Description:
The longest helix is centred in the N-terminal third of the chain and has 7 residues, at 6-12. By secondary structure, the chain is mainly β. Strand 1 and strand 2 (37-46) form a beta hairpin. It is globular, with a radius of gyration of 15 Å. It has one helix and ten strands, in the order H-E-E-E-E-E-E-E-E-E-E. Strands 7-3-2-1-10 form a five-stranded antiparallel beta sheet, with no helix packed on it. The chain has one domain (23-171): Superoxide dismutase, copper/zinc binding domain (Immunoglobulin-like, Sandwich).
Amino acid sequence: MKRLGVLALWLLIGGCATLPYYRPDATTQLKNAQGDVVGVAALWEDEGGVRVFADARGLPPGQHGIHLHAVGKCKPPDFTGAAGHFNPEGKKHGLLSPQGPHAGDLANLPVAADGTGQLNYVARGVTLGSGSGSLFDADGTAVVIHAGPDDHKTDPAGNSGARIACGVIQKVSQP
Length: 175
């Protein structure tokens, strides 16, 4: 993996949390409906998929569904322009579904009482390169955080509730 402090990236875009020390291939700022930055996600190619590291702050405590969504549009207040979960293979929703999961299904984001939370997860069947699993297809991809937890089985979205934060994934220029 490419060595460079992702911490520096986070500090540049307004955060102050500890992230893994790898140069990301892609990033996004996660903004709420008011346009406030409530987190950042860093993504990089990893064995078997794309590692998604999300660092959030200012969110309600509890478990929150977090997914890769099929379209790179994050228009507030409801972020519906991001469409459904990224699902190029047409599978059913859920990490616990025998017919799933969507390529964009991730583990829940745990948020502590102070409003901070982190997720470190490898999305299988996803790439930052080319092909059907590419997050950089013609209409892009977004990271969306939901109001409630994902039950990891109910199609199409795991009963995770309203979309409360969204960010369009962007490639990071490499030196």
